[in-house]
Amino acid sequence: MHANVTLKPREFVMALSSAAAGGFCGTFLRDVLTSLEHLPSPTLNTVTWPQEIPWMLLAINMGGAYLATRLLRGPLRHHDPNDRTRILVITGFFGGLTSYSGLFVDFSALWHVSAAGCLAVALGAVLSGVLAGWLGLVRLRQ
């Protein structure tokens, strides 16, 4: 399968619109889910480093990597990279839903509490994304 390397102006606008619509939905869902993590709860006076870990964003990134891999190796496998469905779902939705850059920004708060904990969680975040992608591939081969 050869990808289209150039798009006509109308195709480009449609691709851009698809990515924007998917990105809006994915980012909105991520924002809603991560806001659930910050609901008011009884807090202690001291902050420990596990309390600073963005658990919801870690779960979102791992789930997003798994689902995107499943889709790219399954139903969207033979779609051209410029196909609007693929752009909407993978580039847009999962690009907006997952946020490794946002995750590493959140690590700044963790770094000030425990540098070693921050490095361990950062390594775990990257490895969990790789593991999720690998699981997405392995599950389709069975």
Textual characterization of the structure:
The protein is an all-alpha fold and 142 residues long. It contains six helices and no strands. The chain has helices at residues 9-37, 49-52, 55-73, 84-97, 100-113, 115-141. Helix 5 runs antiparallel to helix 6 (115-141). The longest helix is centred in the N-terminal third of the chain and has 29 residues, at 9-37. The protein is elongated, with a radius of gyration of 18 Å. The model has no long low-confidence stretch (mean pLDDT 86).
Structural class by SSE content: mainly alpha
Count of helical segments?
6
Order of helices and strands: HHHHHH
Name the shape in a single word: elongated
Mean pLDDT: 86
What quaternary form is this?
A: single chain
From the alpha carbons, calculate the radius of gyration and give it in angstroms. Answer: 18 Å
Which range does the strand content fall in? under 5%
Find the count of extended strands (DSSP E, 2+ residues).
0
Instruction: Report the biggest beta sheet as strand number plus sense, adding barrel if it closes.
Output: none
Into which percent range does the helicity of residues fall? over 70%
Query: For the terminal residues, how far apart are their CA atoms?
Result: 24 Å
Unreliable segments (pLDDT under 50, ≥5 consecutive)?
none
Which keywords apply here?
142 residues; single chain
Gist of the model:
Helix content is about 75%, strand content about 0%.
Q: How are the elements arranged and paired?
A:
Layout: H1 9-37, H2 49-52, H3 55-73, H4 84-97, H5 100-113, H6 115-141
Helix pairs in contact: 1-3, 1-4, 3-4, 3-6, 5-6
